[in-house]
Design brief:
The chain is an all-alpha fold and 341 residues long. The chain has one domain: Orthogonal Bundle (Farnesyl Diphosphate Synthase), CATH 1.10.600.10. Helix content is 72%, strand content 1%. A two-stranded antiparallel sheet has the order 1-2. A hairpin with a 2-residue loop joins strand 1 and strand 2. Helix 10 packs parallel to helix 17, helix 13 packs across helix 16 and helix 16 packs antiparallel against helix 17. The radius of gyration is 20 Å and the shape is globular. The two termini are 15 Å apart. The N terminus is likely disordered.
């Protein structure tokens, strides 16, 4: 992935750290409004606390979405900090979706730690997700920017539809006319992942004093970047280093996920691959065999190329926008494709 190689990692890390500095107070103030139980679990899900409630060191996630909001605000002529409430709202939505997704998927680990439902129980985790969503809407409403609020509420519908499509994919056959298509996968990924990145960038632009036309451009940029982001996630779900990703080796294959490399590879009509995936690889040998067949069928190459195309489209829109934050925005976009976790 050559564009990713151009990213100055220290510069991006500095941007992410700075984003957390100005966003964290807004998030903490909001979380304090919750009942002690969802407050504790929210702190755990956001990476601030241990399961027992002690302060925890660590980033609590990549922070790409809030950084997009801050850099978009700067590109619009404002300060990154102007996007604090919008960035916090987007991060609350992201955290809410992860808490609920982990329950639906039965995932027990996230970022090398127990998931919220595994640590505290399903009921408490569901309530915490609800609380995070409520905080997102309340926090953004405090900006008084009606356009920003409408963009977030619209994206929430897209998120639900994207998650519903992803869940429905589980019941679809691995081969034949009813198999999931690449086009269907792309539509799902736009709703489940890309829409929120587009929303983060567009809200940041608005809170930085930008106009609606620029916000629409930022939304398109973020959606292209979101598709690249999801493609990289899918690659890491099969070929990623477990010590970096915090997930089991070949985890997506063992869980039967119809990720993009899988869907693209199955277009070749490889019956052995379809049988392996349908039975779900029971051990590392079978999973390794499935991963090899996916690669031979072009699934890995197709996904890498899609990530590159979507990154190029995002970078073109950033260049068109210009502004004082555009260089940092481009660096962050390249980081999304070059990351290893």
């Amino acid at each position: 992935m050559t564009p990713g190689a151009l990213t100055p990692p220290d510069k991006v890390t500095g941007t992410l750290d700075e984003t957390r500095r100005w966003m964290r107070p807004a998030m903490q103030e909001a979380v304090e409004r919750l009942h002690p139980v969802p407050r504790l679990i929210s702190g755990f899900a956001l990476g601030w606390l241990t399961a027992g409630g002690s302060p925890r060191t660590g980033t609590g996630g990549k922070g790409v979405r809030p950084a997009l909001a801050g850099l978009a605000a700067a590109a619009a002529g404002g300060r990154a900090e102007d996007a604090a409430l919008g960035a916090a709202a987007v991060e609350f939505v992201h955290a809410f979706s992860l808490v609920h997704d982990d329950i639906m998927d039965g995932d027990e680990l996230r970022r090398h730690r127990a998931t919220a439902w595994k640590a505290y129980g399903v009921g408490a985790a569901v309530l915490t997700g609800d609380g995070l969503l409520a905080l997102a809407l309340d926090t953004l409403a405090k900006t008084g920017n009606a356009d920003a609020v409408l963009r977030l509420t619209s994206v929430l519908v897209e998120l639900v539809n994207g998650q519903a499509a992803d869940t429905a994919f589980e019941g679809r056959p691995w081969s034949g006319p009813e198999a999931v298509t690449v086009e269907e996968y792309r539509e799902m990924a736009v709703g489940k992942t890309a829409s929120l990145l587009g929303c983060a960038a567009s809200i940041g632009w608005l809170l930085g004093g930008g106009d609606r036309e620029g916000a629409d451009r930022m939304d398109r940029m973020g959606r292209h970047l979101g598709l690249a982001f999801q493609a990289v996630d899918d690659l890491l779900g099969i070929w990623g280093d477990p010590s970096a990703t915090g997930k089991a080796v070949y985890g997506d294959l063992r869980q039967g996920k119809k990720s993009l490399p899988v869907v693209a590879a199955l277009r070749s009509g490889n019956e052995e691959l379809a049988r392996l995936l349908e039975a779900r690889p029971e051990d590392e040998h079978e999973a390794r065999r499935a991963a090899l067949l996916i690669e031979r069928a072009g699934g890995r190459e197709y996904t890498e190329e899609l990530a590159e195309r979507e990154l190029a489209a995002a970078l073109a829109l950033i260049e068109e926008t210009g502004g004082p934050g555009s260089a940092e925005l481009a660096a962050l976009a390249r980081y999304v494709v070059s990351r290893r976790a």
